[in-house]
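F.,

This is the one I mentioned.
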């Protein structure tokens, strides 16, 4: 995943449940107050943790933009879409639980996702190691638009953007960039990350919990840009996957921890058989995470 992982995890911890109407105007106001308090604390803790793990080792300077679109085979852009998509969902569920209508919850959830993610682009803009990225901003907008669009079209979620990670050997070549330990690698090593578009299959062909997943990943990325990898003797390449996946939203949990697990399960691609297309060949995996 990318550095926005903290906001997703903190959002899950503060997640209150599935939509339900407020009993009264007073209850509506109380729920909204709880949402704002929990959300504010969550965001503050997320930014503090993010600063410690991501920005603390780099100097700060004047605000600037940087075009990073050619870097990391665009894996970071997929990460931005994943995060904004799932933040929009969590925001939608949270506002609906507070008593807002479905339409307002959807609008507020989308706005909340962008509000949460945009300040981090500002942090990047002041970091001498990065820079505010127009490509990141477009990816953020795209993830939110995909979520909002499918709810407006069908009234429900039929597509999920998911993430999976398996440690790669490339982090050892540049641990200061790709991660010095497994936690850092989870955030920084794009070689081990895969992003998935998981789509509901027609129920006349498959059970409602079974999805078809299209995955995207990359390997050999010791350096950000392909030309630099080549100059240093590394070969980076894209990976495309076709796999099965699972939709847990049809379950009816009764406990808060069960709801959190279901939401997490719908953000992560669990191991399943998969076909991989990469380097001009077709490869089969009994289980791909």
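My design for it:
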């Amino acid at each position: 995943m990318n550095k926005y992982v903290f906001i997703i995890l903190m959002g899950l911890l503060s997640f209150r449940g599935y939509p339900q109407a407020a009993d009264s105007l007073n209850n509506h106001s109380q729920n909204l107050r709880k949402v704002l308090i929990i959300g504010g604390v969550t965001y503050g803790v997320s930014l503090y943790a993010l600063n410690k793990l991501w920005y603390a080792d780099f100097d700060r300077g004047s605000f600037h933009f940087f075009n990073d679109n050619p870097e990391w085979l665009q894996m970071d852009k997929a990460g931005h879409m994943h995060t904004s998509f799932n933040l929009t969902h969590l925001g939608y569920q949270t506002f609906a639980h507070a008593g807002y209508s479905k339409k307002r919850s959807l609008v507020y959830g989308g706005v909340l996702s962008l509000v949460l993610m945009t300040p981090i682009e500002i942090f990047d803009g002041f970091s001498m190691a990065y820079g505010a990225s127009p490509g990141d901003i477009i990816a953020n907008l795209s993830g939110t638009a995909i979520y909002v669009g499918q709810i407006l079209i069908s009234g429900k979620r039929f597509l999920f953007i998911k993430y999976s990670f398996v440690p790669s050997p490339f982090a050892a070549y540049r641990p200061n960039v790709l991660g010095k330990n497994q936690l850092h690698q989870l955030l920084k090593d794009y070689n081990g990350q895969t992003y998935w578009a998981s789509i509901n299959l027609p129920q006349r062909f498959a059970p409602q919990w079974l999805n078809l997943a299209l995955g995207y990943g990359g390997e050999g990325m010791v350096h950000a840009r392909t030309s630099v990898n080549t100059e240093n003797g590394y070969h980076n390449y894209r990976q495309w996957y076709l796999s099965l996946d699972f939709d847990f939203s049809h379950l009816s949990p009764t406990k808060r921890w069960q709801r959190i697990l279901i939401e997490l399960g719908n953000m992560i691609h669990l191991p399943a058989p998969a076909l991989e297309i990469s380097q001009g060949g077709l490869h089969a995996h009994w289980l791909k995470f």
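The chain has two domains: 1-156, 158-289.

Talk soon.
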